[in-house]
């Protein structure tokens, strides 16, 4: 399989899950001391991951948990954000301009900051009250944090059973998703390449909701647009019906991300609508992928990870089809702007 | 001027402003009784207006004010939403499916509902604890509500002066924006028509932030996509730099909405970047429009209304250029889905 190191991926996820003790220690301390609000702050892909953590908790937890976009936080700010507030953020490099300024502003206000910064030597680490440095697995780290917050708040009684299943089976299950998706992904990438070459202006439409919305938004923008320079538009399943539907015709390329969380019914509505007006759509449904050893009731909390695993395979094949190394940038960080 | 009835528009805005007494009575009652959260709930265009009200208050008010998308509220729900919560919503028809279900759910939980429903005879009016029925001016109604909430919370000391200026000058000022924008809008509509006919697949990119974000999002989706069937993508100024920028080339059509609120610096960054990579961009800046009788300090709170006035003229000319009556729908409410 192209760009696939099974053992490395298993180790990566298991290493992420092994952060649990550290994460629990930080979260327990946060909740023991008390707070008036927890703000997941991000920009671009890390904002998308923040949205996933928030929507996951919104339906399950009475804790005051919110999302802020870093650039909005440093301009508009938030009057409800105080010295008793908590920031949670994730950053690979630790030097994204908006993120640095947002954390600086939070610290000036007197809030406490919990960072996941891949590079332990980044300057931003010094601003954190707590920091865990471990590569990748951002969504997993956020959900592990969310799970502990809810457990401590009496909203996650199945916490131990959940973690046991994750620690025993998740890494293997996600690798198996990649393996299962690979042949389909190779075919899909070929089709996308042919379509884009024939229709270079046409945006590819991505639709998704719930914890798939962060996946949909960031996949369209941070992968296809930023890393592959392919036009996209992303929209939630709910909002799809309030405007965007009108520009879908028989040949319009649409990909629907379906998950298994509380917003699945919204995706089902899109899945029911599309065949009536379009014949160039694709549905990627996390439900089609077995997650051995993981209970059905927990699958909704993993839908975005399943989608990420599927899309890892799509990316590998798109990069090859388009002969476009995903690391190159046309403008981003290439000059001052 | 095409589709322009000056006196009717002046009367419409002044009629909206004249609701102040009614709005104040409702808001005062809400704040006297107390609440644990105020939720602007909407879907599509009304969700976009809700986002505008929320971002307006976020930087100025410590009140717990949030936005919910109606479809997400009826699926995922919100555990922080209780019998002590308040819903504020707006609807023209009062029969949008998601909105009806969201209000029903809020009432089941025991929350209080304040509706602006244009059609006084709509069923949803019966579910409201308070309802004001007056046509159009949704954003004005929301901001008037927001202003009173902040005034009562000691966060809007200039309230009386603000309202005096609005009531004396806003309607006339907005009509003058339309008049000033008309010649430009006619030219722009011609260019858009020529571009779209030559490049039917290419999406038109709209970028905006702050209270312009609701305007950007809903203008792209509810006007161009839904009413004119033109492809669009909308993105905030902040997020533009985290992916979307990479697909902008010399001929890519981009329109930037600039306002005068706290997020203007984010739009200025886009305005500085675009000329370096693109020669097919347009900037619509609320600052270019005089608002006679209105103090500079209040202009930020009106930027989205100025943009709406400019876009009214664009719409009138686009409808004529494309020979596409904006009332027709391809799919929306045309069949069961």
TrEMBL record, chains A, B:
- Biological-process GO terms, alphabetical: fructose 6-phosphate metabolic process; protein N-linked glycosylation; UDP-N-acetylglucosamine metabolic process
Q: Record's CDD domains? A: SIS_1
One Pfam annotation reads SIS
Could you tell me which residue ranges the SIS domain spans?
A: 26-156
Its domain of life reads: Bacteria
The UniProt entry, under InterPro entries, shows: FrlB_SIS, Fructosamine_deglycase_FrlB, SIS_dom, SIS_dom_sf
* Molecular functions (GO terms): carbohydrate derivative binding; glutamine-fructose-6-phosphate transaminase (isomerizing) activity
- Name of the protein in question: SIS domain-containing protein
Tell me which species this is from: Schaedlerella arabinosiphila
Q: What is the lineage of its organism?
A: Bacteria, Bacillati, Bacillota, Clostridia, Lachnospirales
């Amino acid at each position: 399989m192209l760009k696939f190191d099974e053992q490395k991926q298993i180790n990566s996820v298991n290493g992420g899950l092994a952060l649990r003790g550290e994460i629990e220690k930080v979260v327990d301390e946060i909740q023991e001391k008390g707070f008036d609000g927890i703000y997941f702050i991000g920009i671009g892909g890390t904002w998308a991951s923040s949205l996933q953590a928030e929507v996951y908790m919104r339906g399950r937890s009475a804790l005051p948990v919110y999302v802020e976009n870093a650039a909005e936080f440093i301009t508009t700010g938030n009057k409800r954000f105080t010295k008793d507030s908590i920031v949670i953020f994730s950053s690979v490099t630790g030097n994204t301009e908006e993120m640095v300024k947002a954390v600086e502003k939070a610290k000036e206000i007197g809030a406490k900051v919990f960072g996941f910064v891949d590079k332990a030597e980044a300057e931003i680490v010094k601003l954190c009250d707590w920091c865990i440095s471990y590569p990748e697995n951002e969504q997993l780290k956020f959900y592990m944090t969310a799970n502990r917050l809810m457990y401590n708040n009496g909203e996650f009684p199945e916490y131990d059973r959940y973690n046991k299943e994750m620690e025993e089976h998740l890494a293997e299950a996600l690798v198996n998703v990649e393996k299962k998706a690979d042949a389909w992904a190779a075919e899909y990438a070929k089709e996308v390449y042919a379509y884009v070459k024939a229709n270079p202006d046409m945006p590819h439409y991505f639709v998704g909701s719930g914890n798939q919305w962060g996946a949909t938004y960031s996949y369209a923008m941070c992968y296809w647009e930023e890393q592959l320079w392919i036009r996209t538009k992303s929209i939630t399943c709910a909002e799809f019906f309030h405007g965007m539907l009108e520009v879908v015709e028989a040949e319009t390329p649409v990909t629907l991300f379906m998950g298994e969380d509380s917003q699945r019914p919204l995706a089902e509505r899109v899945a029911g609508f599309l065949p009536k007006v379009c014949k160039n759509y694709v549905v990627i449904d996390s439900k089609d992928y077995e997650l051995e050893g993981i209970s059905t009731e927990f699958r909704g909390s993993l839908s975005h990870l399943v989608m990420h695993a599927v899309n890892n395979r799509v990316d590998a094949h798109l990069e090859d089809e388009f002969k476009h190394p995903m690391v190159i940038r046309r403008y981003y960080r290439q000059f001052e702007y």
